[in-house]
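Ticket #485: bound-state structure for calcium ion.
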Amino acid sequence: MLNKKTLISALFAVCASASAFAQPERPNIVVILADDLGYSDVSFNGSKDITTPNLDKLAANGTVMTSAYAAHPFCGPSRAGLMTGRYPHRFGSQFNLPTNHKSGGLGIPTDEKFISKVLQESGYYTVAVGKWHLGETPEYHPNARGFDDYYGFTGGGHDYFPEKYQKKYQASLARGMDATIFDYIRPLERNGKEVRETEYVTDGLARETAAYIDKASKQDKPFFIYAAFNAPHTPMQAKDEDMAMFPNIKDKKRKVYAGMVYALDRAVGRIVDQLKASGEYENTLIVFFSDNGGKTPTGASNEPLRGRKGDTLEGGYRVPMFFHWPNKIPARDNYYHVISALDLFPTFANLAGADLTGVKKLDGVDVLDAVINGENARPGQSVFAMRHRYGYSDVGVRKDNFKALRFGSKDEWQLYDVNKDPSETKDLSGKYPVLLSQLKEEAEIWAWQHAEPKWFHIHREGFQWREKAMPRFHETFNYKPMYGE
Ligand code: CA
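RESOLUTION: The complex was predicted; output attached.
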């Protein structure tokens, strides 16, 4: 006969096993990152001339974020923010890395723990495909930063047609030139070993992503795949058949650009097909976005946003984004509250139930519930952007519907309701001076938390400036750096 204690422990056992049984399976996470994609260069976000049917299908069945911000208005720091969940300025990574031969081997500091490492340690199979741009030497390589597998190129971009870039590369080697300087034409690699890619690079990256999904689905653990396409980043190279999809586009640059975006969309279709074929589609969170705004001189459009890649104007870092996850994310109208690429780290970590030991203070917030419920994930909390130019810094501070903006070499601040006025046309600084001064003060406090830049672009002067004036770098609104992006 059962005594009371046995009965209680038996009940406990039943409850515990029932709750273990009810524990939902952790989702797979697939990040599809576009490079320099304009805000309105996908039809789900209002493009009038470029069609993106595969992206549109996902967007229609998921939630589109209309106020999503990249962590920075250009490539390298944006990716550093995504991976670390922290503003790149905090760890001296506010500039693009010099290419390997010029840096002598620099990268995102290894005491910044990447989301890939966190997910790997929590039992995910982790894969990166495509552009890296976070350090090339072994200690900074994707395989050292938490990715079990990697296929791609570690620099800031790549040519697209293998038959052309491979010929150029071989000719350069034959002339005795140093192979490491040719970022864009070097062979791609798999886990550090050179490979001979045979397809148009966007198609090749899609093939590899699909193959890794297949491999992942055969393992008894969830997966995290970071598919970082370089499209539609320069060089502007599109397949004829993709450009032919746009007979109505007469402008040559726009046509090439459209072809590159169309190839990216095809890649997304291939990834979706593989997720379905592998039975992983329903329980995979897909996050699609761009690492920064479109570069209008090469054919991108950020309409109706003002500005372009590199700017703290909306067009510089407000990007197209959606979440898609049939098991959890509703197919709903747009999510218009602020979301930052910095939010992905805590959101993914919580989905994985990951241990955050060794992770420094994160700058983003877990947005999942807010996205599902259509609520503001960070009421009253600002999202910052700062880009250093020659002799001054551009700044953007977004809080709720408002954004304070300092742009250009004059120390003049503007204020916009970018929810109502995304084109930043009606300056409200005279109407809400108190709000503006609050946002300026927040930006200044934030800027004082920045670390000194660990590298500069190719400007020799930067190093001289670093020696002479570095202690003053925190004075971000007035300082006179001698370096560019
Ligand atoms: Ca970019």
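RESOLUTION NOTES: Residues 1-21, 458-462, 464-485 have pLDDT under 50 and may be disordered.
TICKET STATUS: resolved
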